[in-house]
Amino acid sequence: MATTLIAGLTVGAAAYAGKLAIEMTMKMRAAPRLRQFYKDGFQPQMNRREASMILGVRESAGEERIKEAHIRVMKANHPDLGGSSYIAEKVNEAKDMLLGKKNRSSVF
């Protein structure tokens, strides 16, 4: 009688562990993939490579694509919507750099 009880509890525990493993696997597959962002801080003098990384476009991107990326990034980082004014300034500087406009003088 005791061996039957132990065998039943063992099978039940194994089934429960398997259920948890399947649920965790399904959650991990459903989780969105996070993009890998640039880990270093901003360079003292922005160049085209850094500007393209900030906006998430190629250095050779066209004007329309740069403007679309600028709007997308500014919506996420605008100071009026809880973003950082420093980041917003860098995003604007990146747009100007890629569009070939005269560099803005930094406020910070």
Automatic annotation (TrEMBL):
Q: Which residues form the signal peptide?
A: none
State the membrane topology: Single-pass membrane protein
In its keyword annotation, does this UniProt entry include Membrane?
yes
Coarse class of the protein's main subcellular location: mitochondrion
Q: Which UniProt keywords apply?
A: Membrane, Mitochondrion, Mitochondrion inner membrane, Transmembrane, Transmembrane helix
Q: Which domain of life is it from?
A: Eukaryota
From the UniProt record, which GO molecular function terms apply?
ATPase activator activity
Indicate yes or no for the key word Nucleotide-binding: no
Subcellular localization is given as: Mitochondrion inner membrane
> Could you state one GO biological process linked to this protein?
protein import into mitochondrial matrix
**Where does it sit, as one GO cellular component term?**
PAM complex, Tim23 associated import motor
The record's CDD domains line, in alphabetical order, gives: DnaJ
Q: Quaternary state and partners of this protein?
A: Probable component of the PAM complex at least composed of a mitochondrial HSP70 protein, TIMM44 and TIMM14. The complex interacts with the TIMM23 component of the TIM17:23 complex.
Similarity section: Belongs to the TIM14 family.
- Which purpose does this protein serve, as stated in its record? Component of the PAM complex, a complex required for the translocation of transit peptide-containing proteins from the inner membrane into the mitochondrial matrix in an ATP-dependent manner.
> Mind telling me what this protein is named?
Mitochondrial import inner membrane translocase subunit TIM14
Instruction: Look up and give the organism this protein is from.
Output: Elliptochloris bilobata
